[in-house]
Amino acid sequence: MFNKSFRSKIIFPTLIVLTVLVVVLIISFSSKFLYYNNSIINETINANINSIKFYLNTSKNNSKTAAISMAFNINSIKAIKERDRDEILRIFTPMPDLYRITYYTICDNAGIVLARTYQPELFGDSILNQQNVQDALDGKVGSYFESGTEIKVAVRTGAPVYDADGALIGVVSAGVRFDLDSEVDELKNLLNSELTVFYGDTRIATTIKQNGQRAKATALEPAIAKIVIDDRQEYFGNEDIFGTEYRAFYTPLLNAKNEAFATFSLGIPLEKLKNASNVLVRDGIIIGVIGLSISIILLLVIISSISKPLVMLAKDMDNVACGTLHVNTNIKSDDEVGLLNKSLHGAVNIIYKLIEDITATIAEHKKGNIDYFLDTEVFPGDYKTLADNIVTLASVGMKDQLTKLPNRHSFDNRLNLEWQRAIREKTALSILLIDVDRFKNYNDSYGHQQGDVALQTVAGVFAQSLNRAVDFAARWGGEEFVVLLPGTTADGALKVAEKIRAKVENMMVPCADEGAAKVTVSLGVNTQMPTSNSLTSDFISKADEALYRAKKAGRNRIVQDR
Description:
This protein has helices at residues 4-71, 74-81, 85-92, 95-99, 131-137, 181-191, 222-230, 271-299, 307-321, 336-366, 381-398, 408-425, 439-446, 448-465, 490-505, 536-552, and strands at residues 103-108, 113-116, 142-146, 154-162, 168-177, 194-199, 202-206, 209-210, 213-214, 235-241, 244-254, 260-269, 429-436, 472-477, 480-486, 521-528, 558-560.
């Protein structure tokens, strides 16, 4: 039982301080939660804005990949040269799903449509008015946000098609449509936001509804239209749309003439979030009052002698929770408080060890050493599970899961490292770009599963052919591989390339060629003395050009850039 002096000097002042503190916390909680809720809304829409921009950029990249890939497809070149519309449709119709685009349009070298995958019954008209087609007919690959007669808003890429003699015979144009309700519906499900596509200042596709119907053919608010369409600027702010307040974002889509011919917008309705905010603030007040009452009752039965170490431990735990792993409290007692202090120090030490090992793993991966991983066996319980998951994630992020070779990201890290090293040491750096010959035919003949086996077998050749620890092989993508040879001259690179080519040729792996039992590869080789003014992109590009010449010259051969 506490005596009167103890109550008056410690308990009662503490109760008063606690009461004031809880009141202040409730007020602070209410204001901070309102601020936090507004921040969450902004963070959510900012994340969605980044997602929309990524989606638009990805759509453009997909259209470019789709156009270029089919422009170099042997079967499509043959069909276009022969103006065989049925064969063109047969080849191109399944391709949009493969490349994650919407449609293909194929025209001849005069810009006359040979076939469309989205409206196969329409052909014979001219699409010379499309900038991507004009670029392709000039021998360039061009990607643009464009409008057409049938498709109002899309990103399109045109790629020139050449026959075996190098003559321009047509254009493959690949596009991703944005003016479909299905597209905005899919984005809404992904982002949990309302999406709208405007053609000019008119809604052409939207998830926003007015009187139970999609609010299509309705106009963009004039003040926003001036900013987005006339001034070609993005707009971000609150907007009343058909009686509902939204936090909204608008971004213009600029065509080849730098005109804002269309607009992409997303919005988050604020009503539900505000209602949820009010409920949470109310509940916070109720919980605070209840907590205060409980605290007063508990405080009357707590021994003041344990308050100080507990406060110290609480401060240390709060620091740990906020990311500061500096634990200053060191309680020597063997009671529950001492055990808690011991457990806290143990947990902090484990977290320190985990952070150090993760940092070391990241540093090694940046050097291109993707086989370096932290030792998960040194961590107990859930920490081991976390470490195992980190190792798994790192492996997925740095290795190609099919061939177990380093992936493109790992190669980029290693190239940057070796590039800077070559500049410092003034040594040569060689690169081999390797492509499995006629791999599409192989897949068509034996199936994708056997194709995967062939890729794994080819990948195994690199371990047999690269003898130095600094040599680095990675999967470039698809049926392409890349090898980096630091400190290797052009002659040395050719020897390594020939070794790889010969070993692959001698492998007994099923091939698409009738009567053959071999897979072959073509190699493009480039050697360079990197300088501070040279670019890795040019380094790779020259090897890619050499690979193209090797393929064009008949495959199963090596071409070195000179």
